[in-house]
Amino acid sequence: MAQKNNPYVSFTQTVDRAAALLGYERSAYEFIKYPERELTVSIPVEMDDGTVTIFEGFRVQHSSLLGPYKGGVRYHQSVNHDEMKALAALMTLKCALANLPYGGAKGGVVVNPASLSKNELKRLTRRYTAMILPIIGPDEDIPAPDVNTNEEIMGWIMDTYSMMRGHAVPGIVTGKPLLLGGSLGRTGATGRGVSYILRETRKRLKIAEDGCTAAILGFGKVGKEAALRLFEDGVRIIAAGDTSGAVRSARGLDVRALAAHVESGRKIAEYRDGGVEHITNEELIATECTILIPCAVSDVIDERNAASVRAQIVVEGGNAQMTAGADEVLAQKDCLVIPDLVATLGGLIVSYFERVQNVQSLMWDEFEVSRMLRNVILRTYDEVWEVSRRNNVSMRMGAYLIAVERVCTAKRIRGIFP
Ligand code: GLU
Question: CATH 3.40.50.10860 occupies which residues in the chain?
């Protein structure tokens, strides 16, 4: 049975509340709580020292109502079944919300990839791909990068799948290297999406550049890119953290130096710069700032530390960063929460562009990709903003209202087989 603080519980509770607002009978929406298909696999990996370690992996396919399953693969020691179910369901809602012709899925392996050598990681990826191969495919289920996976890993998945099929199948994954059919602008797309959304939010809330500050929890693909973009937009990044701890500077961090430090494989706790103080992630969350951007693993903000938040806006740059309880605490503080369903859309939207380019065997330039990304993400943001204002609900609930309604309508139109 699922315990209380888990993203799957938060997800089902939010679906229930959205369905109640939409006036749906239980039978009209209950299916959204359940994945259509789930696969648990064991992945034996020969380690460099000749021993064999077994890793546990998952691929959860939540919904294929609106198109092929779509969603990332994460490598993390905290990966678990309930989290996979929640993240797969969120992908269904994200695709429906942005009007992308996909359903939702998620995959993951319980592993700390930092503890593996590159060759071990490659063998793990190849065997994981082989184990989920019966249920994935360019028209069935298309994996993509997520926490701790990247374009190199997508290239290995593409190669493994292609070898088993006997011909190149670039469309099996998105977020792959450019040379193998990747899209310009896919790397960093989620972080860029966060920055477009924040530019728009600052405009709507009339927050001047001057004096606008941000604290970023998680300095991986999303956090780092968002930090660099916000910095270019004139926002002062006053705190940033990763799993090792955080740094803070009231004058503003030298974001480019910090990004270079992290890119060289070092941790934030090892970062040294005059005037920078070292703090814990809990202190980062409690830092007084205009914008707090969590983009870490699930549930980093819960009802306990939500009480300490002193930001005006919280943007969920990663999936399922907050528990349902944290949402309530922040709502009481009048803090605007821009939810994952909207804020993390950048990567997914460019994944869709990648697939469109693959199908047509053509390539758009980066400017075109960014322009279209901005259009789609801001159109979605605007819709969510309007629906939440009209119904006097949070932006998260606004996003759920739109997405749940679309998925339920699709179900009704398609009907139940047989
Ligand atoms: N993992 C990313 C997400 O959660 C991207 C998924 C995709 O591109 O399919 O949105």
Answer: 34-170
Ligand 1 centre to CA of 190 (Å) is: 9
β-sheet bridge partners, residue 30: none
Give burial (CB, 10 Å; 0-12/13-18/19+) of 130.
Answer: middle
Which atom, in ligand 1's list, is nearest to the CA of 348?
A: 8
User: Which residues belong to CATH 3.40.50.720 in the chain?
Assistant: 189-343
Q: Is 351 in the pocket of ligand 1 (CB under 6 A)?
A: yes
How many whole angstroms separate alpha carbon 277 and alpha carbon 258?
A: 13
**100-155: pLDDT as tens digits:** 999 999 999 999 999 999 999 999 999 999 999 999 999 999 999 999 999 999 99
Distances (CA, A) of 178 to 173, 186, 370: 12, 9, 16
Single-letter code of the amino acid located at 283: E
Atom of ligand 1 nearest to the CA of 90: 4
Bridge partner list, 217: 241, 294
CATH topology of domain 189-343: Rossmann fold (3.40.50)
**Amino acid present at 159:** D
| Model pTM above 0.85 | yes
Q: CB under 8 Å to 61, separation ≥6 — which residues?
A: 35, 36, 37, 38, 69, 88, 103, 104, 105, 135, 141
What is the dihedral sign for C-alpha 329, 334, 335, 338? positive
Give the Å distances, CA to CA, from 193 to 121, 199, 234, 366, 418: 29, 10, 17, 14, 41
- CA pair distance 61, 89, nearest whole angstrom: 8
* Cα(351)–Cα(356) distance, integer angstroms: 9
Residue 106 designated active-site: yes
- Position in ligand 1 atom list of the atom nearest CA 102: 9
344, 354, 376, 377, best to mutate for ligand 1 pocket (most atoms within 8 Å of CB): 344
Fold category of 34-170 in CATH: Rossmann fold (3.40.50)
